[in-house]
Amino acid sequence: MTATESLLPALRAAVGPAGLVTDADQLRSYLVDWRGAYRGAAAAVVRPGSTEEVAEVLRLCRDAGVAVVPQGGNTGLCGGAVPDASGRQVVLSLGRMRRVHELDAANQTITVEAGAVLQTVQEAAAAAGRLFPLSLGSEGSATIGGTLATNAGGTAVLRYGTMRDLVLGLEVVLPDGRVWHGLRGLRKDNTGYDLKHLFVGAEGTLGVITAAVLKLFPAVRSRATAWVALPGPAAAVELIEVVRALAGDRLTGFEVMSRQSVEFVLAHAAGVRDPFAQPHPWYALVELSDTLPDAGLAEVLETGLGEAFERDLALDAVIASGSAQVAALWALREGISEAQNSEGPSLKHDVTVPVSSIPDFVERTDRALAAAVPGIRVVAYGHVGDGNLHYNLSKPVGSDDDAFRARADELARVVYDSTASFAGSISAEHGIGVAKRDLLADYEDPLELELMRGVKALLDPAGLMNPGKVLPAG
Ligand SMILES: Cc1cc2nc3c(=O)[nH]c(=O)nc-3n(C[C@H](O)[C@H](O)[C@H](O)COP(=O)(O)OP(=O)(O)OC[C@H]3O[C@@H](n4cnc5c(N)ncnc54)[C@H](O)[C@@H]3O)c2cc1C
Questions:
Q1: For the segment 44-95, what is each residue's pLDDT rounded down to a tens digit?
Q2: 151 in ligand 1 pocket by Cβ < 6 Å?
Q3: I want to staple 418 with a disulfide (CB 3.0 to 4.6 A). Which of 56, 57, 251, 365 is the partner?
């Protein structure tokens, strides 16, 4: 019997029979990620119902030398929430810890358990006339714990920041079972090192986040959305500046996509149409929002677009009238990832470079990829307002899937070398997990890696919290 199997009775006693899953059929969905890209094995999934139960589970696992893999909605894109293939790790799901503890309207905060689904938190805020702004395609399943552990970004970062900017306090169970009660709702708190930021973006390698205090904002009462055709990414970067100069903080979304990206959506998604009669090289989806019901946002957009036409930054533009048209424009952006999957293997790279470097980055990387694989289709799109591009690759038309897949590592190097040459990051918002773990050794500063290893050794000396994720061996 393995150490994990001998531990099962104690785990059952800690979380109750409803909190322990060992049945092979029920285990299956916990052992594979959302895309089916990463698969693992586990003797059990524990589903604690409280912080005390999480603490007891971690104590038991520490004493038995059993590794623990925290899991939220399992929508992560880097394999961080999936156990390894040994079958000896235990998955700790936060799925039963979904309560909203408190909404403090005057303090503009909401306190929730880590298993709360992002959309539930958005809805709780909206019911109180407030906004919780994090917005992701996976918000119906992703949890607060998972979005914190990956420092998720999404489409509203330009105005509100990433999860790191949206958190005020955390409760965390450390790998030895001690509970750090950092659940404070303070906007000013200069009492030494700000420990919560160690756990944000740590992908479950330092402890289990069990609850969080998050910032709220006033509810948005008006929006204006435009779809703009552009000659290229350089025009996109200039257009951001034109709109920002007019709209200031009311610029809440600026998504950019290449024609190739939009063509895939038009070819594969149901019920979408090209807003323009002619194809254009690039497009921007620009969104303004305000807390005033009649803020005149469409007029602000019209002024900005007028200037953009005068300066030859825009080739065509449409401002959405009504929520159906807004949804139709967002469908063109949000459908890209799925549409690309219909074109064979999709090699995904989530990178960030300074906004000012985006045009040169795209030009140089496109050229290097075309030289490596003539006919390669680059599907570049993303939250360009914050420098984040999803720089994805599809095979040349008619070529072989496996031959293209076999070159994934080589092509990733082309993209990441180019990213590094612009002082960018090989992971903008999806994290490292196992997907990019070994690349960190090549692209991260050695001193940063050394410090990270020091933090890991301090908090998790036995190496039992999500081992094999984030940090490369060495
Ligand atoms: C359709 C789709 C669209 C997406 N769009 C975006 C996007 O726009 N921006 C973006 O940033 N991401 C995006 N993602 C990625 C994903 O949704 C995010 O990474 C999300 O933050 C993961 O949350 P989760 O609850 O599913 O975490 P999981 O996938 O369960 O876990 C992710 C990591 O966090 C750790 N973890 C989970 N819960 C805890 C906890 N309580 N304590 C400690 N560690 C924990 C896990 O061990 C793992 O390493 C998208 C994913 C999909 C499928």
A1: 999 999 999 999 999 999 999 999 999 999 999 999 999 999 999 999 999 9
A2: no
A3: 365
Is the confidence at residue 1, as pLDDT, over 80?
Answer: no
Contact status, residue 298 vs residue 248, Cβ threshold 8 Å: no
- Please enumerate in sequence order all residues whose Cβ is within 8 A of that of 397, keeping only pairs 6 or more positions apart, or say none: 375, 377
CA gap 189, 194 in Å, rounded: 9
Which residue ranges form the domains of the chain, and what is each CATH number?
3-93 (3.30.43.10), 100-218 (3.30.465.10), 222-337 (3.30.70.2190), 343-432 (3.30.70.2740)
pTM value? 0.95
289 in contact with ligand 1, CB cutoff 6 A: no
Atom 50 in ligand 1: residue holding the nearest Cα: 138
Between CA 464 and CA 123 the distance in angstroms is 36
The atom of ligand 1 lying closest to the CA of 80 is: 49
Q: Please give the number of the atom of ligand 1 that sits closest to the Cα of 72.
A: 30
CA of 189 to the centre of ligand 1 (A): 28
Pocket lining: 467 vs ligand 1, CB cutoff 6 Å = no
pLDDT in tens, 417-471: 999 999 999 999 999 999 999 999 999 999 999 999 999 999 999 999 999 999 9
Residue closest via CA to ligand 1's atom 36 equals 146
C-alpha 32/C-alpha 20 separation (Å) is 18
